[in-house]
Amino acid sequence: MATRQLKAIARLHSAKLLLPRIRTPVYGSSVPNCALHTSARTPQAQPVSAGKHSSAFSQGQSTSHIYDVVIVGGGVAGTALACSLASKPEFHSKKIALIEAFDLAPVKNWTPSENVYSNRVVSLTPSSVSLLKDIDVWRHLHQDRIKPYDDMQVWDAISGARVEFNTSMLGQGSADIPIAWMIENVHLQNGILASVAEHNSKGAKMEIIEKIKVSNISYEKNTDDSATGFDLSDWPTVELSNGQKLKTRLLVGADGANSPVRNFANINSLGWDYDTHAVVATLDMDPLRSNDTAWQRFLPTGPIAILPLKNGVSSMVWSTKPHLAAAIKALPEDSFCHLVNAALRLSTADLKFLYQELVENPESFGSLIKEELTWRESVKLKSKTDSEMREIEFSVPPNVVGVQKNSRAGFPLRLRNAERYIADRVALVGDAAHTIHPLAGQGLNQGLLDVQKLSEVLKMGVRNGEDIGHIHLLSHYASNRYGRNVAMLSACDKIHRLFGTELAPIVWARSFGFNAVNAFEPVKAEIMKYAMGLEQSTSDVKRSTDHN
Amino acid sequence: MLPQMLRGLRPLVTKTGQVRALSQLSTINAEEVQKFSAKSAEWWDPHGEFGMLHLMNPTRVSYIRDRIAPIAQDSTPFKGLKMLDIGCGGGLLSESLVRLGGNVLGADASYNNIQMAMLHSRKDPALWTGPGQLEYRNTTAEDLLAEGESFDVVLAMEIIEHVNNPSEFLRVCADMVRPGGKLLLSTISRTPMAYFLTNFLAEDVLKMVHKGTHDWSKYIKSEELREAIHSLQGGWQVDDVRGIAWNPLRGRWVVSEKNGDIGVAGIGSLEVNYVLTASKTEFKFFAIDTQDWLGSSQNCAMGGQPY
To answer: What is the rounded average pLDDT of the residues A46-61?
Structure first.
């Protein structure tokens, strides 16, 4: 009666596949494949009593190489992801490792030295700062070593058109919100590692494997695990230079622009190289002027940005043609400072002449630039009233008075975007996923937004008992980040191209656009919110609250 | 009666939290593995016929978690709970419950399904290293009841619409729930909307699943299920009923935010998929000579308490 009727119990299609009722033995107490074997051979076997396999033994050695998450790359994105996961109780019972090829001791032991700043700095947006607060990094940072700014001046060298951004225009109560916070990368990473250590002291088990390279990543036939009965043939196997092999449920590539993880996952990176190099340097500025503004001047050869680090110290990013970048980088200190001041003040015609001299007569460039700058400036200020001179002076950054030793460096500019951010059991974050033109200072911030979204998605996966390497789960990360990153990449690319031209109609159009934007506050506020990541964070909050 | 109930308390697996009996693992029956691994891979293919079910799984697990352990913040909220996943299929739900710490029995009347589930469970060591415990059995609900099995939580997800005598199936499932425990069901309502989506669209037009997967006449309306549960022996009450719907814009299944909201946009006649939680009254008189196990059973069967 009921027996016959209930035999039809099956999920979805299983009813069709009903076979003679065969009881399979309990196999929680034995092993998966063993049970399969047994059931096939002895279909009528009675359930094995639970106590029968009491000869249980510790599996410690043979499962110690099995990880839930392996993060490759100990840069800002990689360590921030490690920290974000370690900060969540859901991951305390998970086995997670971060692998970094270099020694992290110099980062861990870093201490600020007054007035000397690293040339690798980042401008953190409010959404990045809120992530850093959420994962307990912010309070590990030296607050007096972080420079917030709430004013940004962007102007076009050809037309002189100017946009000034100030957070006071965001509306009531936002007057004291900085646009961004300047911080040295090494300082940020120092704070992240300190926070990871603290999370570890509170129950997290974040393993940091440093000074060890990843020598190979592959899928392995299940030979190693025949002993345990597991089938991990679709789990990535990470081979380390010390011979260790890690098998992982999820492999995260935070391993930079030439990501080996991305190569392993057969994901192409699309994009192009700009015919542009960036020169970075730490500058000593006129200490008599306050230093609370970020400056960016668009030159036909690329933008030059001066970002405040503290009173009297700023960071420079000057994007220009590769041959000029090389020459600028090699200049004697005083000539270099004069040229930077010239790039921020002189007309594009004057600059063209200076570039020509720089390349053709490098020996005499030192005396030339000094004279040129003084003369051009005096002409510009001739017959101006005091207040007019003041206005001119305050429309450009403070004078550069020195450049810090060994702070000059150069690198080529690229735009890259991985064709996918995920594959089965693989996710890419930061530069491994995308490399952006630095003109908006968004690269590292994009990476931190990746970290925030990925860790949120993984947390949701753990809460729902999902396999956190599964493509269905990871697709929530990719679908959230891909479009946003592409939008930011292409916006920065278009700005680069727009300002790379001296064609009159385009110059006219862009200066009209600049002046129009400057005159129309609501538009400026929207642009600024976008660049500050504010739009992003509010929509994310909405998403996460209605997520089920 | 009592000995029978106590027998039901036998742990499904011993609680050592270790992977065991490694010596036996080296003997794999290659033929059997080969036969089922293709089937298993097909069942578990994220983009295959069961794709929609895979996508529904996190949503329904999230619902189960909210009903059973709403406060727990850790990764093993079901730790110590004995759970039955009746009609476990390829083990989709069972695996998730084990990862969340549950002591899970996945049961299915289909031998094939059980083999696929077992084979797939080898792909995740976390299912075997504890604290969650997993067992699959090729058996039926009524046989489990006859063997005296009982559970803190019985889950009959997407199954009651496939059985021949749903009210008898419901009674058998309910009888396996320990006093203070919970019964969770999810199914499809017998509305024109459900016919349109599951029979016409999914089977005939989009061919997402093969013809005959769904039998509209077997669908049960949420009101009918609610009444059937209230008429069960043993002091049953329905705690919660909600609709669960595919949101094409967000690419995921979403459970209604409010208890009682079942149909699309809250319209009862538009109800399609829904999920229901019922709880069984605790009988204090059992405590007289079985203080020990009832105590643990109460703790486990919580009803919203942290553990």
So the answer is: 32
In which residue are the tokens 């049953």 written? B236
CATH topology of domain A63-150+170-268+419-546: FAD/NAD(P)-binding domain (3.50.50)
CATH of the domain at B108: 3.40.50.150
Beta bridge partners of A156: A298
| Set of chain A residues whose Cβ sits within 8 Å of the Cβ of B108 | 9-11, 14
pLDDT value at A267 more than 90: yes
Tell me: is residue B42 an annotated ligand-binding position.
Answer: no
Task: Quickly state the pLDDT bin for A315 (edges 50, 70, 90).
Answer: very high
User: Is there a contact between A26 and B134 if contact means CB atoms under 8 Å apart?
Assistant: no
Amino acid occupying residue A82: A
pLDDT tens-digit readout, A388-398: 888 888 889 99
Chain B closest-CA separation from residue A534 CA (Å):
22
Q: Is B226 on the interface with A (CB under 8 A)?
A: no
Helical (H) or strand (E) element with A355: helix A348-360
Tell me what ipTM this predicted complex has.
0.78
Average of per-residue pLDDT across B8-28? 32
Cα Rg for chain A, rounded, in angstroms?
Answer: 29
Given its phi and psi angles, is residue B265 left (phi above 0), alpha (psi -120 to 50 degrees) or beta?
A: left
Q: Would you list the DSSP string of A298-325? A: EETTEEEEEEEEETTEEEEEEEE-HHHH
Average pLDDT, chain A: 80
Q: Residue B264: which domain range?
A: 30-300
Structure-token pair, residue A312: 């009297």
Contacts of B133 in chain A (CB under 8 A): 28
Residue A419, exposed/middle/buried by CB under 10 A (0-12, 13-18, 19+)? exposed
Residue percentage of chain A with pLDDT more than 90: 52
